[in-house]
Amino acid sequence: MHPEFEAVIGLEVHCQLATESKIFCSCRARVPAEQSVGEMAVNLNTCPVCAGHPGTLPVLNQKVVEYAIQAGLATHSKINLKNRFARKNYFYPDLPKGYQISQFELPICENGWLNIETDAGQRRIQIQRIHMEEDAGKNVHMAGFSLVNLNRAGVPLIEIVSGPDMKTSEEAGAYLRALYAVVTYLGICDGNLQEGNFRCDANVSVMPKGSTRFGTRAEIKNVNSFRFVEKAIDYEIARQIEVVRSGGRVIQETRTYDSDKDITISMRSKEEAQDYRYFTEPDLIPLEIDEAWVQKIASNLPELPEQKKTRLISDLGLSPYDAGVLTGTKSLAEFFDRVVQILGGSALAKPAANWVTGEVSRLINEAGIEIHQSKIRPEHIADLVRLVHDQVLSSTGAKQVLALVWTSGDAVQVIVDREGLKQVSDVGALDPVIQKVIENNPKQAAEFRAGKDKLLGFFVGQVMKETGGKANPGLLGELVKKKLLG
């Protein structure tokens, strides 16, 4: 960031809801797995309603409303008991009706917020609105022509619109991850970024530092990766600063992000509300929500990320950082809770957290998968923690075991026995090894006896090397010292 400028960032997140059927018809919202391969899957989940045939009428899916209310409650938003749908008119090949049924003046949720954590500390990001709408179809671009698949047309979405509160790509990434955690904890979104279940439009502008007048914004459309959103925002900030510093003028436009080249590219001029010619949807009556229903939904909300994080800190004594990592995704949080349950409570929670936030997270991040997609199970980590605590395994041996669990999924004790990784704590077995190391290093032994205490680590390391890392390091230091001074 140039020292003379600051950025203003707002995010519009499209969250595909995990309902069985579409928002305004009874077509399945997902292609069944057994039918998801091949040409037969194309346009499989369609009917006259979602294909936009003249004379068809939409019927609202109640589950969509319930999921939208859950999202609003979880983001501290006001639930509007009276709201209505609107037609958003635009023409594009994947929009068969020529308009999208959305919400405009009266959305279902308004005025919420979400806390985020960055290296600079905690910040509160405002959520201006959450509204329900239908997804469009999908264009498939071929060499010289395009095809349209309407399976996605009519799949329910909520659009979550933040305030222009973020100043850096780090804050934008933290907000997205926090929001992703909320909707996946609720179970209202599958959270599959690759399939576009959770995607983001980023509005970015720059202005002179200290100014209160926002610059002209550009919208980066449909980015479906946290890392790519951050990279696209960084590029766009730098691009706009360069335009302004060179005497140019930033134009309001829609851009797309090319991840291969790490640049944003102009697509079209940015539309305003008047360009969409919004008007009230005539085929859907205004929606009136019963307050008692909202209260019932609120009483059945699951434990959410912030609540779970607070619990891990207060009940298990974990650091805010560890608790934040462990609650970053629903699957990792559930995995850790199960580990603690197997271990019987909080006594070994800290070493368990170290394993999950350390080696386990490293492995799943490198593989680009969620913990439930790996062969590692909570029982594996609980067994490792116990064996290290009981000094049956060294930390080095435990890492070797975990690497083998990752590839095979075998039980920890099976691997320990098969690979001979049990830690050596038998003084009788260690004594001749220590004696051999001292005899092979007479110069260092003499220097230690002359007062060079730091050489103790050298001898411990040599014994560990001789035993293949199996010697008990807690016992070894004292045995080596006694032998050297003996």
Major β-sheet profile: 9 strands, mixed
Indicate the proportion of strand residues.
15-25%
Cα-to-Cα separation, first versus last residue: 63 Å
Percent helix: 40-55%
Unreliable stretches (pLDDT < 50, length at least 5) are none
Shape: elongated
Number of strands: 16
Q: Going across the major beta sheet, what is the strand order?
A: 2-6-7-10-1-11-12-13-14
Q: Average pLDDT, to the nearest integer? A: 90
Query: How large, in whole angstroms, is the Cα Rg?
Result: 29 Å
- Number of DSSP helices? 16
Q: Count the domains.
A: 3
Helix/strand-derived class? alpha+beta
Fold and architecture overview:
The chain is an alpha+beta fold. The chain folds into 3 domains: 5-296, no CATH class; 303-419, no CATH class; 427-485, Arc Repressor Mutant, subunit A, CATH 1.10.10. The chain is 41% helix and 20% strand. The protein is built from 16 helices and 16 strands. The protein has helices at 62-74, 169-186, 226-245, 273-276, 291-299, 305-316, 320-326, 330-343, 349-367, 378-389, 395-408, 412-419, 427-440, 442-449, 455-466, 473-485, and strands spanning 5-16, 78-79, 82-83, 86-89, 99-102, 109-118, 121-134, 138-141, 146-149, 156-162, 198-208, 218-223, 253-258, 263-269, 279-280, 287-288. Strands 2-6-7-10-1-11-12-13-14 form a 9-stranded mixed beta sheet. Strands 5-4-15 form a 3-stranded antiparallel beta sheet, with no helix packed on it. A two-stranded antiparallel sheet has the order 3-16. Strand 8 (138-141) and strand 9 form a beta hairpin. Helix 8 (330-343) runs antiparallel to helix 9 (349-367) and helix 13 (427-440) crosses helix 15 (455-466). The longest helix has 20 residues, at 226-245. It starts with a strand and ends with a helix. The mean pLDDT is 90.
